[in-house]
Design goal:
The chain has one domain: Thiolase/Chalcone synthase (Peroxisomal Thiolase, Chain A, domain 1), CATH 3.40.47. The protein is built from three helices and six strands; from the N terminus they run E-H-E-H-H-E-E-E-E. It has a four-stranded mixed β-sheet. A two-stranded antiparallel sheet has the order 3-4. The protein is globular and about 50 Å long.
């Protein structure tokens, strides 16, 4: 899951809890806000591009500057450096002020076999 985080402790804990309860399987969780600084006007497009590239390149980008994660946020946040993984799906969540929200799910292309 790729998410543009506001880096607010309460939100990070809530995100981790919701992801654990709804997806119920191991997943990598990447937060781009720590890397892209403040690109609010284009953040959703940036997230979507990163998600699509993760599926295409079969690699998960790092969550930079994650030195002391909260124990309540116990997902695999891929700290500090990217990781090669089999990525079948990538979920990009964008939450804007005023209730402008979007979620995009990207799936790896599997050509049909004849």
């Amino acid at each position: 899951m790729v998410k543009r985080a506001e880096v607010v402790a309460v939100n990070d804990k809530l995100d981790a809890t919701v992801a654990r309860q709804t997806l119920r399987e191991k997943m990598n969780h990447h937060q781009i806000q720590r890397a892209e600084k403040r690109s609010r006007p284009g953040a959703g497009g940036l997230e979507a591009g990163i998600s699509a590239l993760a599926v295409y390149h079969q690699a998960v980008p790092p969550t930079v500057n994650l030195d002391n994660p909260d124990p309540d946020c116990d997902l695999d946040y891929v700290p500090h450096s990217s990781r090669e993984l089999k990525v079948q799906y990538a979920l990009s969540n964008s939450f804007g002020f005023g209730g402008t929200n979007a979620a995009l799910l990207f799936k790896r292309y599997q050509p049909e076999r004849a």
